[in-house]
Amino acid sequence: MNRIDKKFQELRQQGVCAFMPYVCAGDPTPELTPELFLTLEEAGADLIEFGVPFSDPIADGPTIQRASQRALEHRITLIQILDIVKKLRQHTEIPIALMSYYNPIFRMGEETFCKAAQEVGVDGLIVPDLPPEEAQPLLKVASECNLATIFLVAPTSSPERMQLVASVSTGFIYCVAVTGVTGARKTLSDEVAPMIEELRKHTDKPICVGFGISTPDQANQVAQVADGAIVASAIINVAEKYMDDKDKMLSAVKQFGSELANGTKTDKV
């Protein structure tokens, strides 16, 4: 049982939903990334999705694309990102799910990457452009390295597709709230609850919802039906307001993160 499994077991015993913010590695700068990461943990994060910036982020909307571009302008590499995780592990035991498109993993080599990720303290992998049908080599080495493999379902996923994703996912299943790319949205999709209800027929694994959660109220809506709420663009939007003032940025992110965390911990109705 790795840190992700332990955390969801703990939260289920408490009857509460996980708050999982997203941090883009290298944004705003490689030096600030660890501070932003630890600030979100202080704000109440239960797990953190740690994003590997990529030049062609097909699942990401404008906000995460901007964050990735800033990181890439600092020439951040996958090796540097793993080194950041290693240094973070001197300060925290929070579960870390590394979100990377497949190309950087493929270029490093799946076995080399998984062993390196395990050694520095990564707990799980989210590879949005790698379908389960083509994931067997990565699944094998990830399992050997005790890394959770987290796949995605969407509102368009058929029951058969959900069953397939549930069968290969470990750690949790990533439920995409909308058909489209990431980004803050004013309302939560009406498709979320029915999608989770169908997915529950195929698995008892934890289900986390991402893409579009933007407010504490939306986080609370997710908490009524899911095991975790993933928030990315809305947090980056807050950070972007204070790019020239580190202290204000960290303070604002911590405040917003605390509000989101509280939203996930409000009693279920």
**Percentage of residues assigned to helices:** 40-55%
Low-confidence segments, ≥5 residues, pLDDT <50? 179-185
Global Rg:
17 Å
Please report the total strand number as a whole number: 9
Task: Quote the CATH topology.
Answer: TIM Barrel
| Main sheet record | 9 strands, parallel
Domain module count: 1
Shape: globular
CATH architecture: Alpha-Beta Barrel
Overall pLDDT metric: 91
- CATH homology superfamily name: Aldolase class I
What are its keywords?
269 residues; alpha/beta
Descriptive account of the structure:
This protein is α/β, with parallel strands linked by helices and 269 residues long. It has a single domain (3-258), classed as Aldolase class I (TIM Barrel, Alpha-Beta Barrel). It has 12 helices and 9 strands. Strand 7 (173-176), helix 9 and strand 8 form a beta-alpha-beta unit. It starts with a helix and ends with a helix.
In a nutshell, what does this entry contain?
With 269 residues, the chain is of the alpha/beta class. The chain has 12 helices and 9 strands.
Write the layout of secondary structure elements.
Layout: H1 3-14, E1 18-24, H2 33-43, E2 48-51, H3 62-73, H4 78-88, E3 96-99, H5 102-108, H6 110-120, E4 124-126, H7 136-144, E5 148-150, E6 152-153, H8 159-168, E7 173-176, H9 192-200, E8 207-210, H10 216-223, E9 228-231, H11 233-240, H12 246-265
Parallel strand pairs: 1-2, 1-9, 2-3, 3-4, 4-5, 6-7, 7-8, 8-9
Helix pairs in contact: 2-12, 4-6, 5-6, 6-7, 10-12, 11-12
